Amino acid sequence: MADWSWNLDAASSEPLRSYEDVLVKRIFHPWACHLLGVLRPEPGSRAIDVATGPGTVARMLAASVGPRGSVLGTDISPGMLDLARAKPPVDGAAIEYAECGADSLRAPDAAYDVVVCQHGLQFFPDRRAALSELHRVAADGARLAISLWAGLESNPMFRALHDAVSAELGEQQAQDFRQPWSLPADEVVQLLHEVGFVDVRRTPAALPVHVPEGAEGLSCVYRLSAIAEELEQLHPTAHEALMQNLRTRLAPLLHDGTIHAVTSAEVVTATATSTRPA
């Protein structure tokens, strides 16, 4: 099974610009607001945002914890981190960014009061190792919040992207594409218990999103996905067939060229303890 590739090397790349202009602005920013609303970080907190991407959640954390707090954003993609670092400073805590995998965080033990991962866990090769690392860097009593997409059956906009791939490119490509919507929250809850978190809770949530860029804008997801390389090799006729299929499937969600859809996810929260599992 192919993996999604977020390892975009240059902040000037077209896929990265599309990610920022469409996906972050229309989808990930609203979900970041929801995630921090659930977590409610206190002023002065030390926070870490794992899989920070272009710094969306890290910047919100910086504003929330204020100048007495601190924020570290980590990501494995140098291109994403370049984009994050290029943004103007936030009125709040200083933000440090570090290039590292989630299973080998460049952070000391028990250093953070707030630990966040938005829509990133499903991409980690070793989720248990990554969650164990989150526990390692969390101080006693630290609060954790993780967001995970619900299944495609609860996300009609993403389902349209998937079903167009299935119809035009085949089931293997569709299986590779559906990775972000394939991690059950129950599995995450179990892993969190195993690595030492307590008070683990999962809460379903649904948020409306609006994508004025329409099907063409939303299709940037394809260029960031596990099937990106294959799409680059498609004959123009086949590519247009894929896009036409996508437009047809999105038609019920379109009004005046804007996609109006509900996106569904699970937010899993937990508390860290000083007791480390054997």
Automatic annotation (TrEMBL):
It comes from the Bacteria. Residues 48-141 form the Methyltransferase domain. GO terms for molecular function: methyltransferase activity. Keywords: Methyltransferase, Transferase. The keyword Transferase applies. SUPFAM superfamilies: S-adenosyl-L-methionine-dependent methyltransferases. One of its GO terms (biological process) is methylation. InterPro entries: Methyltransf_25, SAM-dependent_MTases_sf. This is SAM-dependent methyltransferase. It comes from Actinopolyspora biskrensis.
